[in-house]
Amino acid sequence: MKRCMLFVAALLAAAPSAFGQSSAGSDAQQTLARASAENKYTFLLFYRTNNGPTQAMAQTLKSGLAGRAATAVYVNANSPAEQPLLQRYGVARAPMPLVVAVAPNGAVTGLFASKVSQQQIAGAFVTPTMEKCMKSMQQGRLVMVCVKTSPGADVPQGVRDFRADPHFAKRTEVLSLVADDPTEADFLDQLKIDSRTLRGTTTAFLAPPAVLVGKFGENATKDEMAAALSAAGKCCDDPNCKHNHKGHQASQPTRSTRN
Fold first, then answer.
1. Domain membership of residue 222 as a residue range
2. CATH number, domain at 118?
């Protein structure tokens, strides 16, 4: 089964606090830090009781991660030493057992409660660009993925103009990938971009929690992208922003009516 990019939306409520944390702490926290340094995924199995469901998830993880660049970490949610890790991923009150999949860059790529399948484990391993997208969106950033037909193709002018706009500059990430890169095939499939028919550069515009704002050709303008962002309800909160159409509408005085 192909992993759905929008599934990430279920992960984002807890994920932003997972970044910028110290690696010092419990054995589990240190193992997580080592895995990141070794460019490995970490699958955190949070549990309160070592019961049947917990043991079943542990066994599935063991077999599902065999031969992969990943490590499983078992986290006792009752341990005071592990409380920072529970807070870090926002799972202190979550039903358990629970598996949280973490990419080497810290992005949460999977969240599975009560049970996990081999298929779900495989789906938590995402493409390199998807990993970067997920991290950026979990940090509350807009992401523009420029899908190019050749490595030397320029980033479209509209994308550069959008990224340079003061309203968007600090919260916009621009990423690029080449359409025929086999490691990105799954991501392109989810974006519904066919590398075989692609002409020029197409930019997929994504906003938190995992909204596809739109796909734009290489001649699209900054204003077109900003309008699509506003229509998706993902523009900034500044009512004076010229791009925030909803903000303008809300700031308009109410017309009085005469009987």
1. 128-249
2. 3.40.30.10
